[in-house]
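Quick start: read one record
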Amino acid sequence: MARAGPTRHDSPHERSQVTSIPESTPSEYADVETASDDYANRFSGDVGKWFLELQARTTLELLAHLPRPATVLDVGGGHAQLTPALVDAGYRVVVVGSDPSCGNRLTQWVADGRCGFEVANLQALPYADASFDAVLCFRLLPHSVGWAGLLGELCRVSRRSVVVDYPSVRSVNVISDRLFALKKRIERNTRPFMLFHPTQVRGVFEAHGFAVKVERPQFVLPMVLHRWSKSAGLGRILEAPWQRLGLTRWLGSPIIARADRVRA
């Protein structure tokens, strides 16, 4: 697959000066997989709909502090998991992907001007500092060629907040090596991924002038087991006791976290 360099497209959204990309900057292409139809099939059916509804609802809650109409950059968001909810909520959305193919699932929103799509190296975003009110990045950190550098870029171009998701080492993901074979059989196209301790993520944010204000762990049981059950209703029942006991807060994964700018 041919790789495209940074491009600019006319759109009604706020634009910024393109920044130069040092030759030493690694190229980030992990979002090509998550923007594919094959990957989208992992979120089909009753359970997949539950996963995406919870993710979108949580994200909108974390963005509720922003003024309207706020500008949102969705880095690696070609999976279009958040685009409908963001657009319907009135945000001015730009999705940036590493390859033109990452825009395939965004066609309906780009075509009518409700969302912009651009191609760039995600490790060296072509936007000036503080270009967007908020920057999102989902399904990318655990597969990134340089997750700390990626977080730094998200912070650089955000004026107010950054929202990311990541799998936590404090969850049952700690035995992910043992579960990977089962996960592969059920999901078929799964990939190895990195686990993070929340203190790691908080530390990188702090180094870039941001502080994590909210963390929302999602599930105590592995998502692959919910997919195996094929029942969102059963999944909600199984997750409810952990939530009532307050254990989801400590053992849940993935974590959706919002960090806010505390200094320029």
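The two ends are 39 Å apart (CA to CA).
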